[in-house]
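Form P-L/3: holo structure prediction, ligand adenosine monophosphate.
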Amino acid sequence: MIPVVKTIDEIRKYVKEWRGAGMSVGLVPTMGYLHEGHKSLIDRAVRENDRVVVSDFVNPTQFGPNEDLEAYPRDIERDAALCESAGAAVIFNPEPDEMYDNALTTVSVDKITKVLCGKTRPTHFAGVCTVVSKLFNIVKPDRAYFGQKDAQQLCVVRKMVKDLNFDIEIVGCPIVREEDGLAKSSRNTYLSAEERKAALCLSRSLKLGRELIAGGQDSAAAVKDAVRKEIEKEPLARVDYVEAVNADTLEEAEKTDAPLLVAVAVYIGKTRLIDNFIIE
Ligand code: AMP
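OUTPUT (holo model):
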């Protein structure tokens, strides 16, 4: 069975041994409760590196005070089976105390963390940047894999890596969806059967937005308006945001020219879901 490592010292020993043998190392940071979306990142990492570390850590510092830290689903045994079948070498599954031993240091990225999800989750990206920096320093991977599902996170991590000169290649991976279009997410487990149906309004509205742009709509405001109206047809949905921004700078877009990120966050009941598409 794949080793599930709890301490920083132990994971460093694995990596040191691989490095000594001249092997390359890939890292897939996750919060666990793994699904096909995570697996697509692990598969790619396994293809591109000699050894792959999957971190499986529900990072408390990226949750706000009234968010779902306690409720967040966890199943390390199932995760281990998925990682093993995908060909990962080891899982890093520390406890919060192992990661945050009276820490006083945080890493934060300005400006691009204040828009989109940053508006409703003002402390989220500092938590993400801090834990990702720590994972980078602990594992020292050649490459790290992130999903476009969290498009803003990917953008923020790329900026952090550039600004702080981390010698790590950041690999972005496409969104994996359920057959009916819902983007896979560990948080989908919160949805009742009725909410699960309602949640399709995210992917449906984005499909509509994409079609409008393909059909020649060049006004970002018109696309946002159509996407929002489509979501608002669903009685169980409450829009957090519908945005169209430059995919690199996250600055508000007026036109729909590439690189464009159209992103939504929607509450379905109490569950906050996100989805997006990018025009490259
Ligand atoms: P999480 O465990 O939710 O923090 O996600 C860990 C990584 O998996 C992040 O880089 C996510 O963007 C990525 N991820 C989550 N869901 C999907 C998905 N449906 N498709 C592709 N990547 C995903």
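COMMENT: The two ends are 41 Å apart (CA to CA).
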